[in-house]
Design goal:
four-stranded antiparallel beta sheet, 27 strands, 664 residues, alpha+beta, six-stranded antiparallel barrel
């Protein structure tokens, strides 16, 4: 049910003059819930508060205790790391009082965020044209700033040309070849910046003997990755499953809260999913070891159970994210899970089991090859023991074709020798996965905030998606620049990270939250006062993106604008011309009913569907995506159905053609 009380939306809701006391009110729409809870609590002999085991959960329990008249010194707070028979019994066996330090840490964050948002947003409204709906967030602004800074790095980047020379070589009497790359000249690292340089080297190499100068063999051990924490789960789900962070956390919440499993009833399948701890219980380690030995054999167990240590200042109240019952493999649950639940459970289960398995062992070979004054290098490996990669492979696991028995002095045959042109690449734009990694590495935000940060900056139109990449909008760039100019601390990574550490100190009972807020507020209010005095009279205009769509009323090229319901096309001749249009995205599909184009559309609830361009005259629509392929039976467009049983089928209701689609 989430929070039941919060700060009011229409006012600051913080008594700055009296210790920054928050002025909480009942959240609109929660009246019936609270009324029902009060009635049930009054009739109960005992009330236990079992909200989520983190800062937010502790704060919700505190608010409920206030509303229900439960004394703060009464041991009514219980927490569950996992919602299983064992987990619930363990939690209920150890009720405690509400942790005021945890509550104060949550209150401190809420008050900080409200002060920044409530005081800074009006400044943006007054300085950015059309910015009446703008809002500033303390941590969100830093995230947007990271994305803007990266975009500017990309724009400023000047690619540099360079060349490489690669040889395909084979041993005498052998047909299989291996690759080697030019590395040195006269023993020194050697770079080529132009085609002329590369061609000169190729000329020198012509006719030269390629001889093995040295062979280095070693044994490399690859250790499994630790079990997931919130940030790494979101990153891996993005990379491997294509899940956005919000989707990942929604599905993880479902797995944590419980799924109906035949013969077991409703049971939580994973431990609490908002954690930055890598700790694993001894019981879970033993269960994993039993499964590994039974499924793969004793040689796949490490000599001692694996223990992982987290970096930096983590909250160790919870375990890492793991299956609550490691012995239940994903295939046993597939029939009772949704497609998303199965994919995410499988990812979590495999990562955890693999984390408790033995390391993989590789025989590595590195060969130095001499050709006149030049030195080439070839390297590769073969798998001696697959270890944990039998279950959870990652990285380049392809076997090397480098000869195992190469020895110094061996003469090699040249099958091919060529130069290749390359250009240095700019840094990549952030994706959700890489942004979450950057936030975590810089100490910005906490496990519960990564997904909301990304959702917020997208919904406020400071950032947009371009494929998987996150790209700043013109509005985002202007807003960040304005905040940097007047409130540099707000978008400073180190300053924001320090605030997070201060909140951690509040949680640990080492710092008073009011003192922390006051210190921030004194500096912030001075900066705000100076910024307001220096405020210019001219508002900043957000640049408009021109399109090739011509306004049929006045002939101007229409521009993209953003309104309450997202982007739309508008005539730049406003107010003389007030023509607007929806932005439509065409698909490869052709309507099977009237032959019109099939467009990607959004329902009132924001769900994607596909409909004919001639709607409402033509009623064709589908939830399934048209593909660039026609039906082999009737020639109409084919549709792709996703989900548990994916298939390709004909869009025509009169045609029965369909085929099974392989799951990806």
């Amino acid at each position: 049910m989430g929070h039941v009380r919060d700060l009011p939306k229409s006012t600051l809701g913080i008594d700055v003059a009296h210790g920054f006391a928050p002025q909480y009110i009942l959240i609109s729409g929660k009246e019936n819930l609270v009324r029902s809870l009060k009635k049930e609590a009054a009739a109960a002999s005992n009330v236990y508060l079992a909200t989520d085991p983190d800062r937010e959960g502790e704060a919700i329990s505190w608010h409920l205790a206030k509303l229900l008249g439960i004394p703060m010194d009464k041991p009514v707070r219980v927490t569950f790391n996992e919602i299983t028979h064992f987990g619930v019994e363990q939690g209920m066996a150890a009720p405690r009082t509400i942790d005021s330090d945890l509550v104060n840490a949550q209150q401190g964050r809420r008050v900080l965020d409200r002060i920044v948002g409530y005081k800074l947003s009006p400044f943006l409204w007054k300085n950015i044209r059309g910015g009446s709906s703008l809002s500033a967030g303390r941590v969100q602004s830093v995230a947007v700033s990271l994305i803007v800074d990266r975009e500017r790095e990309i724009e400023a980047f000047k690619p540099e040309e360079y060349w490489t020379i690669d040889a395909k070589l084979c041993e005498k009497g052998e047909t299989s070849s291996f690759a080697a790359r030019l590395q040195t000249k006269n023993g020194e690292k050697f770079d080529m910046k132009s085609e002329e340089e590369a061609n000169a080297v190729l000329s020198e190499l012509k006719g030269k003997d390629f001889t093995v100068a040295g062979v280095k063999k070693s044994l490399r051990k690859k250790l499994p990755a630790p079990p997931f924490i919130t940030s790494t789960l979101q990153q891996e789900a993005s990379l491997k499953l294509g899940f956005q962070s919000r989707r990942t956390m929604r599905v993880a919440q479902e797995l944590y809260e419980g799924v109906d499993v035949p013969g077991m009833g409703a049971v939580g399948l994973i431990t609490y999913m908002r954690t930055d701890s890598l700790r694993i219980s001894d019981e879970a380690k033993q269960a994993a070891a039993s499964y590994i030995e039974g499924r793969y054999g004793k040689e796949y167990l490490p000599t001692a159970a694996k223990t992982y240590k987290a970096k930096g200042n983590v909250q160790d109240a919870h375990e890492a994210i793991r299956p609550t019952m490691p012995e239940i493999s994903p295939d046993k649950l597939q029939s009772c899970l949704s497609s998303d639940q199965y994919k995410l459970y499988k990812l979590i289960w495999e990562r955890f089991i693999a984390s408790q398995m033995a390391a993989a062992l590789y025989d590595t070979v590195s060969i130095d090859i001499a050709a006149g004054d030049y030195g080439f290098k070839a390297s590769g490996f073969t798998v001696r023991f697959d270890g944990f990669t039998v279950l959870y492979p990652y990285g380049d696991e392809e076997k090397s074709s480098i000869p195992k028995h190469a020895a110094a002095g061996d003469l090699l045959k040249v099958k091919d020798l060529k130069g290749s042109q390359h250009f240095t690449a700019p840094p990549a734009r952030y994706t959700e996965a890489s942004l979450i990694k950057a936030l975590e590495e810089n100490g910005i935000g906490r496990p519960s905030t990564y997904a909301p940060i990304i959702t917020t900056i997208l919904s406020r139109n400071y950032v947009e998606r371009e494929g998987k990449a996150l790209k700043p909008t013109s509005l985002g760039i202007i807003t960040v620049d304005l905040i940097k100019e007047h409130f540099s601390n707000i978008v400073d990574v180190d300053f924001t990270a320090k605030m997070e550490k201060d909140l951690d100190k509040v949680e640990a009972g080492k710092t008073d939250w009011v003192h922390m807020i006051k210190k921030f507020y004194d500096d912030f209010s001075k900066s705000l006062e100076i910024a307001q005095k220096n405020q210019g009279t001219e508002k900043i205009q957000v640049p408009e993106e021109e399109t090739d769509v011509v306004c049929e009323k006045c002939g101007r090229k229409m521009v993209i604008k953003t309104g309450r319901y997202g982007k739309f096309l508008a005539c730049p001749g406003y107010p003389e011309c007030k023509n607007t249009k929806r932005i439509v995205k065409e698909t490869p599909g052709i309507c099977p009913l009237c032959g019109g184009k099939v467009l990607l559309k959004k329902s009132k609830t924001g769900k994607t569907y596909y409909g004919c361009e001639h709607n409402p005259d033509c009623g064709f629509m589908s939830w399934d995506e048209p593909i660039a392929e026609n039906c082999p039976v009737c020639g109409k467009s084919l549709l792709s159905k996703k989900g548990r049983n994916p298939k390709i089928y004909c869009s025509s209701p009169e045609c029965t053609y369909e085929r099974t689609e392989t799951k990806k």
